[in-house]
Amino acid sequence: MASVTARGMTLYILALLNFVFVFITGADFVRFISFRAIYHNITGESQLCQDSVPWSVALRDSSVLKSVVVDLGLLALFTVQHSLLAWAPVKQACQSVLGVLNRAMYCSTTALALQILMHYWQPVTDAPCLWSVRNAPWNTWFPLLCFTLHFLCWSIICSILLIFDYPELLGIKQVYYECLGLGDPLALKSPRAQRLFAHLRHPVCVELAVVLWLLPALPLDRLLLAGSLSAYLALAHSLDTQDCAYLSVQLHSKLRLFSLPQDVTAQNNDNHKQE
Predict the structure, then answer these.
(1) CA–CA separation, 130 and 172 (whole Å)
(2) Is the separation of the CB atoms in 252 and 231 below 8 Å?
(3) All residues at 6 or more sequence positions from 59 whose CB lies less than 8 Å from its CB, including other chains
(4) How is this protein situated with respect to the membrane (predicted)?
């Protein structure tokens, strides 16, 4: 029993360390995606782009080309890590070695890849912006609008992550169930729910697309970032009519809870948990 308890404590500590690392990385990613892009003047950074330089000159500039190559390499690193570890043969191999820590390992390596991308990202400041809002009064109101919508989108993203069982997404629930002898929490879900999770790998595509593209100015490096991540998000899931029908049923069941008596609502909640 002592050895089992020691093993359980070790698993809990590793899962919690993963949670802290992923949480910190998520906060850094919000700063990287939204704060730096909208409030670069507050951070003391230099100008995001040089509109006085024509594209024909900028694309022959060695510093611009070097930054583009570095940024594309960082995006390739993140894409390969995120896709390779989700590939079924690699996932099964990691599962056989790591067991219940497999999901936590996937989240930790994803966070590490994001940290590397954010730390070594090269802003392209010697090329023109694809667009830049500078004329009054839009140079004041449009950044404020961007901030409001970014804040709203990040709030929605956090809410959706909580709805989609945040402890399970980070691998904490797997460790908890293992220590209690309950098995894999995903295996306890209905077949339709398992099918949905297999197809819907990123449930916040629309919100992420908004924060990637809605900016007061769009420099070349941001175009690379937004374009690459948007394409990856669009290709990373494969929802079909069965998944959409299941989501529709779940949505209607949630809406019905507001119009049912309390005792019937409690019974429906129990049925939903079984589902």
Answers:
(1) 42
(2) no
(3) 65, 127
(4) Multi-pass membrane protein
Residue 34 scores a pLDDT above 50:
yes
CA distance 99 to 73: 31
Flag whether the pTM goes above 0.85: no
Query: How many domains in the chain?
Result: 1
Q: Which residues pair with 94 in a beta bridge?
A: none
Residue-wise pLDDT for 146-170, tens only, equals 889 999 999 888 877 776 677 777 8
Domain of 32, in residue numbers = 1-190+206-239
Contact call for residues 28 and 118 (beta carbons, < 8 A): yes
Residue at token pair 């069982």:
165
Contact 108, 22 (CB under 8 A): yes
Q: Match 């500039």 to its residue by tokens.
A: 61
Q: What's 68's DSSP letter?
A: H
CA–CA distances in Å: residue 90 to residues 10, 49, 98, 219: 24, 41, 12, 37
If you write DSSP's letter for every residue of 216-256 in order, what string do you get?
SB--HHHHHHHHHHHHHHHHS----HHHHHHHHHHHHHHHH
Neighbouring-strand partners of residue 132? 217
If you search the block for the tokens 């293992």, which residue do you land on? 178
Inside any domain, residue 3: yes
Query: Which residues contact residue 26 at a Cβ distance below 8 angstroms, ignoring those fewer than 6 apart?
Result: 111
